[in-house]
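Cont'd.
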Amino acid sequence: MPTIRLVFAGLARIVMKAKIIITPKKAVLDPQGKTVQSALEHMGYAGVAGVHVGKYVEIDLAPGTDRTAAQTALDEACHRFLSNPVIEDYKLEIE
Amino acid sequence: MNFAVLQFPASNCDQDAVHAVRVLGHAARLVWHKDNSLGDTDAVIVPGGFSYGDYLRCGAIARFSPVMQAVKQFADNGGLVLGICNGFQVLCEAHLLPGALIRNRSLQFRCEHVFLKTVAHDSPFTSQIPEGKLLRVPIAHGEGCFFADADTLAQMKASRQILWQYCDAQGELTDDANPNGALEHIAGICNERRNVAGLMPHPERACEPLLGSADGRLIFESMIHALGQKPAALAA
C-alpha cells in the first residue's frame, strides 16, 4: 500500500505557521496610514475612512510543535519583542 | 571619570561620543554589545546609529543584547546612563525610560540644527545648563517622534521627567520648531529616579566651536559634575 503510506507521511509533515499582524494603536499618530489614505483619495478610491499601516510577521514552526505551547510562547514573544505594547497592538494566529 | 560607550552592530555615533568625552578631558572606551560586563565605569553612553539595522523597530533587538543586561544592572544601582538618538530608542525599548519613539510626523528623515529648552534643571544631565539658556544642537533621525499614553505623560510631568523640549530661537514652542511631531515638543526625558536620560538630538556633535556649537558640552558637564568632578578646561 505505498500510496496510503505516502499520504500519512505527508500529513505528519504538515508545517504550522504563526501569522502575526502588528498595527499601530489607535491613539498613536500614524503618518504612514494618513499619507496612504490621502493617496488613495487622490487616486479616486472613494469611501476610505481610515488606513493603518502595520507589519506582518510569519513564523514557520518546526514539525511536531505543540500548538498550545507554541501559542503561549509566541504570545509572550509578541508582547516582549515582536510588538511594542506602548505603541502597537498585535493579533496572533497559528494555522 | 570613565565613560563606557556601547557599540552595537551599526552604531555610528559611538566614536563621536568617545571623542566628545575626551575633549572634555575625561576617559572613554567602547564596550562591545556581546560583553556581559561594563568593567570599571562611572557613566554609560548608549550612542546613536542604526543598531541591528533598525530591524523590527528601532532599538528592539539591541535591547536584548548581553551588554544591555549589564546596563540595566548599572542603572538599577543608580549609575548614570545617557541614550542619544538610537540610544534613546534602545533605552525606551528596554523600559529604562517611559514611552516610545515613532516615525516622524513628516515621514522625512530630519537632519538639521534645532534649539532645545531645558525644562528641568534638577537632574544629573541638566544641572550645569544656565537658566534660560537655549541649546543649539543637531538632530539626525527618521523616528524621533516621542509618544506616551496620557497616564504615562501625566506621571512624567508630575515627576518632572521632561528634560528638554524643541523650541525656536526665541524659546517658543511653535509647531515649526518641532522637527518630528513629538508629543508636547519632547526632545529628551529622564526616568523617575533621574539617573537614566535619553534625547533625540546629538550633544556629542556639538562640543567644540569648530563644529558650529559647543552647547552640547553642558549636558556632559552636568553628568561630570554629578559624578563629583569638575570638567577639565577645553583642550586647545
